[in-house]
Structures are given as structure tokens and as C-alpha cells.
What does this fold into?
Amino acid sequence: MTASNIPRRDFLAASGAALGAMLPLSARRDPFSGFPDWSSTIGGPAATAADRMAWWREARFGMFIHFGLYSVLGGEWGGKTNYGEWIRNNAKIPIDEYDKMLGRFNPIEFNANRIAKMAADAGMKYLVITTKHHDGFCLWPTKQTEWCVRNTPYKQDIMRAVADACRAHGVKPCWYHSIMDWHHPDYLPRRDWEKDTRPDTGAQFDRFVQYLHAEVEELLTQYGEMGVIWFDGEWEGTWSQELGASLLEHCHKVSPNTLVNSRVSKQPANGLEAKLSKPALGDFGTPEQKIPDRGLPGVDWESCITMNQNWGYNKADKDFKSLPKLVEMLIETSSKGGNLLLNIGPTGTGAVPPESVDRLAGLHDWMKVHGEAIHGTEASPFEGAAFRATRKGKRLNVFLPEWPAQGELLLPGVTATPTKVRLLGGANRSLPARGTEQGLVVTLPAARSNAVCSVLSLDMPTAVPTAY
It folds into this structure.
């Protein structure tokens, strides 16, 4: 194994035996079978699944943050500028060379309070930030490794700052944590391109699993109750369904009400729809860079999508989605009964790119008027309609990015007469509506109420059905 300039104690703050003692018995026994009763675990009583999911279903919109050592490079290595958070792997940077990045990490412009406020203002109800990405670098001063923020010029605990700032602004703090780890000497498999220079002689994957459990326990016990722990990097052959079940059990033992995404375990490989089936493990599915063609009743899911083309900061990537496109994605996920987790990638100095700031401000302007049509809503009752909609109790919301040419909108299958019809952010007067054989016809005013997307809100006499 090629020696790193980070000492071997980087992954053993305690002996292997001590690390093992930190784990629940299930993490040390033979492959897990069956599902435990979380209510009897050491972390205290667990809420029912519905109760634990309630805030997440209400939220519908969250912020994703990819930030780490890779941010310092800005996506550039060896004259190429098309890299992101995978830069160490994709640019084939030797570990000794990448280790030097530790001395360059000093994000003095990282302002957790400002970021949390921008998220809250944009109508985002939770925030998921990378605690450790695939390069293994930890953004909190973990006791398990020297490969962490404590040994950078910055030194400060980013996770503490984020957790405190989120709570101050009414945003649920959540953690992303990679199972895959390109730095830990016991993680397997090695990258194909570094097998000769960094052989896996002496590596013990079970020791890495102990390290992973110890880090997750720190994250779930030192910062108050977290909304979600969002795992990633589970697809390599060394990770198994049994290991995923053991990690899930550990999470629920130390923090019973924290949600865990489906990537704690192996994911189906046969398409997006399969990935959206009810996960065998975890609370919700995680389609990436895609919104499914349809929602699935009884299945919780969240589409995570970038603002531009990269998760981590890439200074050359100016291909940012427009504000109307971002609003369209939020409407589409909500109308299908899912959540949108929208990513930003701070620069190496910790600043949020101005393009992201601009779009978050635009989302704020739209959401402060129309957020009630997103938060706490359920999927559209109209199947195959030319418009998108959400429902919440007796309220039906219809989204109008384009104004109907004839000034009238047909809501097919609606036979009940609404008690009030209005445009959110409009004059707050009730619009005329009449019943027809095809459904309810609403007469719209001449002018649209919002340049990005208007929302028609109807108060119905009874709860809006799941389908018309």
C-alpha cells in the first residue's frame, strides 16, 4: 500500500476492539435478518412511520449542498475543467497529491447563517449537506480520523454551524454521508487506476464498516436530532443488503426519528420506476437528476437535481437552469406527490455562486406568494391533464405557466361547485366558474397574476378526491 502523508491513525482514534464496542450487537453479528422494533431501542421511543414522515411530506422542498475539499479545485485539474465532486477519481489524482488539499481548505466565506436564511426564504423546509463525500474528507472534527476539517487552516466545525443556523431559521438540518470512501485504507474496492500504486494488501473491509458506524453515530448524537441522514455510494460490490440493514438499525437506535433514505442499501438496477418502488430499506426513494413520469401511490420519493450541471463547484459551469425551469421542476415533483431537493455547490472559499443566489432570490419571490400550493400538498387528482395540480384537504391548486388562449380553463371531471375561486397573489376576488358536461369551467381575468407561473386556487365544499 502506498503510504499517505496522513498517519495511519487517521482511521483509528480507538482500537478496533474499542470501535467494535461502540456498535450495536447487530452490527457485529452474522448477516441481519428481520426488522427490529425501533420503539424498544436505546435512543428512546420512536414515532410511527407516518409520524416520522409527516414533516418531510409537508416540506416538499429542500436544499442540497455539495461542499468539500474538491470545491477548492473548482472542477479543474491537468488543464481540464469538466470535473466536480468526483475529481479525485475522474482526474486520477494520486492520494498523496490529493492529501495536500488539506492545507488549502480555508473557506472563510462559508456563512451557514446566510445559507440557511436563503433556503428558508426560498421556501425550502430542510437542508442536506455533505458531511463526507466519496473522497473521505470529513467536514466536522471527527474523533475517528485526522482526514477532517480539524487539520485544515479553517479548523471550524461546519456541521455545528449548519445545524445551529438551520434551526435558527426554521429549517430541518440533515446530513449526507457517503458509504464509499476513496481515502480510508480499509475501504474496498480500490479504484482500478490506483491498484498498482495503492494495493489493498492488509485492508479489512469489516474494520471500515466499524469506522463508518462510529462516524454516523457521531453525526446523529452530537448535533441534536437530525431530520434525515442521506446515504450515498452504496452501489459497490463490497456493500450488501445485510450491511445496509445493520447500518439502518444503528441509525434508528441512536436517533429513532431521523429519516434514512433508500441508498442505505443496494438499489434496483433496472430503471427509474423500479427505484421508485417502496424501498426494501429506508424511508424514501431517491431518483437523481430525474423526475419520474408519474408518482406512485403509497411511495415516498425525492428527486435530487442540480442547479447547473455539477453537484460540486465547477467554476467553468455556467449552465444554470432558469428560474421558470426551477419553478417548473418544483411544481412537477409536488404534483406527482414527491419532494424536490435542489443542489447548490459553494466555491472553495465557501461562497454561494452568484447564479445560485440569484435563483434562490427568484424562488423566494415566487414561493412567498404560492408556497401554500406546494407545502403539505398531495398529488394531482387529474390524470393526463394538460396542466399540473396539487390538493390539500378541500383546497385544489392548478398551475398555469401559460395563460389559456380563450381565457377559460376546463377542469375535467369536477362536478362540485367551489365556494371560492381565486388566483394566488391576485386581487383575491372570486372568479366565475360554471359546471358543464365535461367538468368545471373557470373564467380567468385578462392578465396573468405572475410572470413565472400563476396558481389558481379553488376551495371545494368537500375534500378533493385522489382522482376525478
